[in-house]
Design goal:
By secondary structure, the protein is of the alpha+beta class. Helices cover 41% and strands 20% of the residues. It contains 21 helices and 24 strands. It has a six-stranded antiparallel sheet.
């Protein structure tokens, strides 16, 4: 409020000139800081200057909010203490307050320097004073509007700052779906700052995102998002959203908070895997031995790598060895190494074993249940003494290795059968972690499927759009005996068969999923439903311009007229 009149100085100067023309007197308008913001005649050159030393009556107006008419400046009682009284050349002075929100924001001053002007004013005094009050009211209205606009603009700028700090995308649009505001996240996602164009928001049937899933089409770009729509005003709505890919990225990967190291392919969305990950976070920093159990293909090595990447050994080696894939005759040399000349056929330079390679880091023993009994004894000794001896040597070598073992077998049953040492089992089973099979965490299937689809589409240089809801439904019902590994192989197979539309559909499924009881051909599946799904997806992807429809017709292998007829027939217009 301090500088409002200065901000209106162009308008105030016009008001001053209007008053002067009508009343035929010099006019000056001062703000509450004693700055002359408007003036006419001999006072015009002083606009912008301070009036602190020559505003005796104006000070009273600011204090009292009253109007003063001084007919005889040197003789009037209000002038008795004016420091300029001896040099005063004024014949008449009128001071009218300017109000803003019940406070005096400034003063309109009329000054007469000759008797003719004075007589003219006295003759029309009542009329002129009412006119001054009207002008004062006009200035007050202008100041109030400026204040309101400034406040609204300030709120708008403040809102923009807040919206741009939010990590979600924000779109504000009117009842005609014209976009009126987008925050910086949205600007980056849609690669445009252009407003006032049509925004298309369509509900999306997405098993992963759920009921708050939408497809947004703007600036010829389509995004699948998870978000909520709020009513912002009677005329505007707000969509706050996260891009589907961004949600995937936040779930798909586990990042070490200290080192920022990324563990790829540790994917989870289900509650059971969330609990497992919480457990991993708790045990990773400690050196305790971990035994990971679970069916083949559940991702036990990825769990082991995640433990290592979140441990204090993250900058040291992670060495993996499959105990069931190495011939028994070579197991001992693989584990402990040998010195040169140890046996016929050995490397003449000798060899460093896996324990030494993993020194300071982590040794992952996969398929530990397949390890022969004689090696189990040697492994137990290393776990107890933390020392190894290379083949052909008598020298003990200290090793600092964290052991993480994994198996898809029931070690307790192997112990009962005499095929696995009981003492070794207890040495390994310090921190047990059981990875649930994929069929018991169906919530992870959708996110795994899309992750692998994007992975292989990139690898094969194909354009992946989405997985049809029909395929996802079959995935959910299938038993997945090969777990995540089988799902990955399935997606790789389907990406090989995928067409230019980028959609993984029922026709791309491998035969084993089609012949399973859980994946019967849906009886309601018709040519019509397949056409509707494919044309709809392509319209969403490419848009509905004439050029887009030509491209879609080419992809489908039909004429443009046929495409138009089917769009009309299936009511697929936007």
């Amino acid at each position: 409020m301090e500088n409002i009149l200065i901000n209106l100085k162009k308008d105030i100067q016009k008001f001053a000139e209007t008053i002067s023309q009508i009343i035929q007197m010099d006019v000056e308008i001062m703000d509450k800081n004693f700055i002359r913001v408007g003036g006419t005649g001999r006072l015009k050159n002083k606009v912008g200057q301070s009036m602190t030393e020559e505003s005796h009556i104006y000070k009273k107006v600011l204090e009292t909010g009253k109007e003063y008419v001084i007919l005889n400046p040197k003789e009037d009682i209000h002038c008795s203490r004016c420091p300029s009284i001896q040099n005063c050349k004024e014949k008449l002075e009128v001071s009218t307050p300017i109000f803003l929100n019940n406070e005096v924001a400034g003063v309109i001053g009329l000054i007469c320097f000759n008797n003719q002007q004075k007589l003219n004013f006295i003759d029309k005094q009542e009329k002129y004073l009412n006119f001054l009050k009207q002008i004062s009211g006009f200035i007050s209205s202008q100041a109030y509007l400026f204040l309101e606009n400034s406040y609204a603009e300030s709120k708008k700028e403040f809102l923009k700052v807040i919206l741009n700090k939010i990590e979600e995308g924000i779109l504000i649009y009117d009842n005609n779906h014209l976009l009126t505001h987008m925050n910086e996240v949205s600007i980056k996602l849609f690669n445009t700052k252009i407003l006032q164009e049509n925004l298309f928001i369509q509900p999306l049937n997405d098993n992963f995102l759920g009921k708050n899933a939408y497809s947004i089409i703007y600036n010829d770009k389509k995004l699948d998002v998870f978000g909520e729509i709020f009513t912002f005003s009677p005329f505007e709505k707000v969509l706050i959203f996260k891009e589907k890919k961004a949600i995937h990225n936040s779930i798909l990967h586990v990042t070490n908070s200290t080192t920022g190291t990324l563990v790829k392919d540790f994917i989870f969305y289900s509650d059971s895997m969330k609990k497992l990950f919480e457990r991993i976070n708790k045990i990773s920093k400690n050196p305790s031995t971990v035994l990971i159990t679970g069916e083949s293909g559940t991702g036990k090595e990825i769990i082991a790598r995640t433990i290592h990447m979140n441990s204090n050994r993250v900058n040291q080696p992670f060495i993996a060895i499959n105990c069931g894939a190495i011939p028994e005759a070579l197991l001992e040399s693989e584990f402990f190494g040998y010195v040169k000349g140890s046996f016929t056929g050995a490397d003449p330079r000798g060899k460093i074993g896996k324990f030494e390679l993993a020194n300071g880091g982590t040794l992952f023993l996969d398929e530990i249940g397949d390890m022969p009994l004689y090696m189990q004894i040697k492994l137990l000794r290393v776990l107890q003494e933390r020392k190894i001896i290379r083949i052909g040597s008598n020298q003990l070598i200290d090793v600092d290795v964290r052991i993480i073992a994994a198996t898809n077998q029931n070690l307790e049953h192997l112990v009962e059968m005499g095929e696995f040492r009981k003492d070794l089992y207890y040495r390994l089973n310090v921190v047990p972690i059981e990875v649930p099979p994929l069929r018991k965490r169906t919530g992870d299937i959708f996110i795994f499927a899309e992750h692998f689809a994007e992975k292989y589409a990139t690898l094969f240089k194909k354009n992946f759009t989405n997985i049809s809801s029909e395929v996802l439904s079959i995935f959910e019902k299938y038993n997945w005996p090969g777990n995540v590994r089988e799902l990955e192989n399935t997606i790789e197979y389907m990406i090989n068969l995928m067409g230019d539309n980028g959609i993984l559909s029922y026709n791309h499924l491998p035969q084993k999923l089609l012949t399973t009881n859980s994946a019967k051909i849906p009886q309601e599946r018709t040519l019509k439903s397949m056409e509707i799904e494919m044309i709809s997806n392509l319209l969403i992807k490419y848009g509905d311009s004439t050029e887009s429809k030509k491209q879609i017709a080419k992809i489908l292998g039909i004429g443009i007229a046929t495409l138009y007829r089917k769009i009309e027939q299936y009511n697929l217009k936007h």
